[in-house]
From TrEMBL:
<dbReference type="InterPro" id="IPR051563">
    <property type="entry name" value="Glycosyl_Hydrolase_51"/>
</dbReference>
<dbReference type="InterPro" id="IPR055235">
    <property type="entry name" value="ASD1_cat"/>
</dbReference>
<comment type="pathway">
    <text>Glycan metabolism; L-arabinan degradation.</text>
</comment>
<dbReference type="Pfam" id="PF06964">
    <property type="entry name" value="Alpha-L-AF_C"/>
</dbReference>
<protein>
    <recommendedName>
        <fullName>non-reducing end alpha-L-arabinofuranosidase</fullName>
        <ecNumber>3.2.1.55</ecNumber>
    </recommendedName>
</protein>
<dbReference type="InterPro" id="IPR010720">
    <property type="entry name" value="Alpha-L-AF_C"/>
</dbReference>
<keyword id="KW-0732">Signal</keyword>
<comment type="similarity">
    <text>Belongs to the glycosyl hydrolase 51 family.</text>
</comment>
<dbReference type="InterPro" id="IPR017853">
    <property type="entry name" value="GH"/>
</dbReference>
<feature type="signal peptide">
    <location>
        <begin position="1"/>
        <end position="16"/>
    </location>
</feature>
<dbReference type="GO" id="GO:0046373">
    <property type="term" value="P:L-arabinose metabolic process"/>
</dbReference>
<keyword id="KW-0325">Glycoprotein</keyword>
<feature type="domain" description="Alpha-L-arabinofuranosidase C-terminal">
    <location>
        <begin position="445"/>
        <end position="643"/>
    </location>
</feature>
<dbReference type="GO" id="GO:0046556">
    <property type="term" value="F:alpha-L-arabinofuranosidase activity"/>
</dbReference>
<keyword id="KW-0378">Hydrolase</keyword>
<dbReference type="Pfam" id="PF22848">
    <property type="entry name" value="ASD1_dom"/>
</dbReference>
Amino acid sequence: MLRLFPLIFVAGIASAINLNVSATGGNASSPLMYGLMFEDINHSGDGGIYAELIQNRAFQGSTEYPSTLEPWVPTGGAFFTLQNTSIPLSKALPTSISVAPSSNSTNGTIGLLNPGWWGIEVKPQKYTGSFWVLGAYKGKFTVSLQSDLADDVFASLDLPSKSESGKWVEHKFELEPSVAAPNSNNTFILEFDASAGALNFNLISLFPPTYNDRPNGNRPDLMDALKDLNPSFFRIPGGNNIEGDSYHYPWRWNETLGPLAERPGRPGTWGYENTDGLGLVEYLNWCTDLSITPVLAVWAGMYLGDEADHILTAAELAPWVDDTLDELEFILGPSSSTFGALRTSLGYREPWDLKYVEIGNEDNLYDNGASTYASYRFSMFYDAISAVYPELNIVSSAGDYSAVGGSGTNNPSSTDFHIYTRPDYFVTQFGKFDNASREHKTLVGEYACVQGNLDEVVGVDWDLPRVPWPTWVGAVSEAVWSLGIERNGDAVLGMSYAPGFQNLDSYEWAPDLISFTADPSQTVLSTSHYVINLLSNNRYNATVPVVSDSDFGPAYWVAGVSEPGSYTFKTAIYNATEAVPFSVSFEGVDEGAKGTLSVLSAPDGLSNNALEDGVVVDVVKKDVKELVAGVGGSFEFELGNYNVAVLTT
Ligand SMILES: *[C@@H]1O[C@H](CO)[C@@H](O)[C@H](O)[C@H]1NC(C)=O
Ligand SMILES: *[C@@H]1O[C@H](CO)[C@@H](O)[C@H](O)[C@H]1NC(C)=O
Ligand SMILES: *[C@@H]1O[C@H](CO)[C@@H](O)[C@H](O)[C@H]1NC(C)=O
Ligand SMILES: *[C@@H]1O[C@H](CO)[C@@H](O)[C@H](O)[C@H]1NC(C)=O
Ligand SMILES: *[C@@H]1O[C@H](CO)[C@@H](O)[C@H](O)[C@H]1NC(C)=O
Ligand SMILES: *[C@@H]1O[C@H](CO)[C@@H](O)[C@H](O)[C@H]1NC(C)=O
Ligand SMILES: *[C@@H]1O[C@H](CO)[C@@H](O)[C@H](O)[C@H]1NC(C)=O
Ligand SMILES: *[C@@H]1O[C@H](CO)[C@@H](O)[C@H](O)[C@H]1NC(C)=O
Ligand SMILES: *[C@@H]1O[C@H](CO)[C@@H](O)[C@H](O)[C@H]1NC(C)=O
Ligand SMILES: *[C@@H]1O[C@H](CO)[C@@H](O)[C@H](O)[C@H]1NC(C)=O
Ligand SMILES: *[C@@H]1O[C@H](CO)[C@@H](O)[C@H](O)[C@H]1NC(C)=O
């Protein structure tokens, strides 16, 4: 039976591509295959998926980014100063805000207002808050969620002060608005009686409900957007995020643990101080909540920057190798071990399920990065880790085979290859892994189509602008690339689009997989998200051979099987000038058998999903049709240019 689809780019109809799919004879497919790449790139973590609503909640600072009062606003004529009081809240959080009445204060209340991370979503739900106070005060505090644009107060609560002189005292509260605010232009306000004089505040926190109700957890809507992708792995805690720049502040796992008051924070890689509220345990819980495998990245002695001292010598690196063993003991060790006991003390008796450790991030970045990584940095980690944890899969970050370990043993290292390019170039890379090592596997830890096509097929030019949003032609080229990877599921561990998130109110990098604001109704799932969603939700255990009377291009495909008779055929059409008819037969599938064909399309290659004037524009269309196998058991259907399709039987 022939099913016709509306075609977008049709000049005629070519003769059919005939494909015979065998039942056996292929290769096992990596169970990881589709995964996640995320890091706190301009407020994707703090201000993003990490659900804390208060911006600059604890006045964390460093040499690189000194503590600031931004974006706090005084109310009632209050006067703010940052202070390192003689009694700090904690060693980690020495700096607090002093809120004092000024000559401008009327005799009512004074306080402090926080605009959130470019707004606060207010809904009828429970918000969990807390703050710490230093200074004697007998009155009450008032906490509220208010509109920034009108006089509306959505929730307000008085709580009696428990504060005392010479002591930091925590106050906890819950706010439950009875109605939703019309938009996210809302603020949080904390006030007290001006007659109290000056009080110091620190760690002022407010959380909405989180994913799986985790305390200190993640935004549910953004977690759902990740879960929709059916991911299998997650590289934590990111790529460049682990490195630190010329100020030499690499990510330190052991300073991201425990109560928030014990986390000093650190200067991140994207121009601001990170709270580290999203710490190692939170990343691991995130993996648990999405049932995905962590790929733990550890710093391998390369700072970002071109100074002479941005690579550690072997002697300087040795303590970091020890530190990695400590971190692995924290994650994997028995409760009787030093760091296993630390884990247990934090409430996690059972070890986490960790199988992959990546040594650094793009350590081939500089000339001396690549050479030192190949000569000593990778092997120091490989040797030390595999001696203690021979079952761990160790991944080099060089993206090639310049640094390998364990050849010929049962734990050969893998490598993490990254690519940012243009649509045409991606399509030419369909066969990239056909001859790749099956022993030293590849993780495609970052990929994205970031620029448009030129007259010639070339890769990215970092001196030119990138596209603001993933385009449809880019997403289709990523589909072709992904099918090439799936065909080599025995050589490739998996792939993850990067970056995962874009905070539309402060971003440094586009295009991104998921874009968001404080208002969940404005979340944009990119064209690339649609493609990954379709491909990742149609997994199979093993590839199977496909015999065809046509070469690849403009159609690219892969076929796989899970249970006998249960096939998955995936195809993407790139550069077709006319409709592409298919006739696909699966071994053992007879006339009358049913199949389901899902087809993604968009109005044209340059269209993209976006947020325009606060409204989500979604150009991707998904058509799902039931097909019935005709004579000889073949499924016949037709696709147009820039279609991405999956047929399952
Ligand atoms: C299985 O792997 C072999 C060896 O790498 C390769 O030649 C063959 O094309 C693969 N088969 C399928 C169906 O992917
Ligand atoms: C607090 O102490 C830190 C660390 O010594 C210092 O860098 C910072 O400037 C101090 N802040 C204030 C407000 O005194
Ligand atoms: C009082 O208000 C004036 C006008 O808004 C402002 O310029 C001044 O800085 C305020 N003084 C204090 C101590 O807050
Ligand atoms: C504050 O209260 C005192 C005493 O009642 C009064 O003298 C003063 O005028 C008040 N100030 C303002 C700004 O209202
Ligand atoms: C509401 O907040 C958003 C995000 O900060 C901002 O872009 C917008 O201008 C605000 N709207 C108004 C009317 O102030
Ligand atoms: C974290 O580990 C480093 C290296 O072992 C150590 O210097 C530092 O004091 C530790 N920090 C905490 C908070 O334990
Ligand atoms: C797609 O078509 C364009 C225009 O004919 C051509 O320049 C480009 O090389 C083609 N790309 C691929 C991957 O076939
Ligand atoms: C893989 O190897 C085959 C046989 O040597 C060769 O024909 C083909 O061009 C190679 N493919 C790639 C992508 O290098
Ligand atoms: C990234 O975030 C920092 C801190 O909020 C901000 O100063 C910087 O301008 C942001 N970068 C971009 C490109 O928006
Ligand atoms: C597919 O199999 C059928 C039946 O054996 C055969 O007639 C046909 O030629 C095959 N097609 C290709 C492309 O090999
Ligand atoms: C395919 O994988 C699933 C889930 O991993 C497993 O239950 C099933 O037995 C596998 N089927 C085959 C044919 O290997």
